[in-house]
What does this fold into?
Amino acid sequence: MADALTRTIAAEYEDGMSAPLIRILGIDPGLRRTGWGVVDVLGNRLMFVACGSIDTRDQEDVADRLVAIHRGLAQVLADHRPQEAAVEATFVNKNPSLLVPAQGGLRVSEYAPNLIKKTIVGAGHGEKAQIRMMIGVLLPKATPQTEDAADALAIAVTHAHHRQSLVLRAAVS
It folds into this structure.
């Protein structure tokens, strides 16, 4: 349903405007649960597409958990075909969630947790409940079942807000 609505809006927009429709995948990395969220951006308009999380079991080996996350994210890429991806930067280890979108040929942007919170809530130290509430305001059709899915949508929205400066910076370099 979201894809049909997005295509209709894009067609109407393209008749009078020149901004392209961009699909963004946001990833909230975690070894126990990796959240993912997909939004479409058309000009300054945000549209919810889908969200969810990939769960692993604590009893599994780390390698098996990473394989499960990889498979789950690969399926999300196949199902939703994003053009760009964004991941919350982690400080503990290098983020394996970067691998799947990078393998899919996407440029992956990383955002610090405080920047995500500041973009969504207006303060760099917002609570998870505030993020979830603001995602409901920014993406009224969003249905995140977990905090990780809501956080992933927040990451995608953050990228939508900051991507233009990244594009301009790349053009100048």
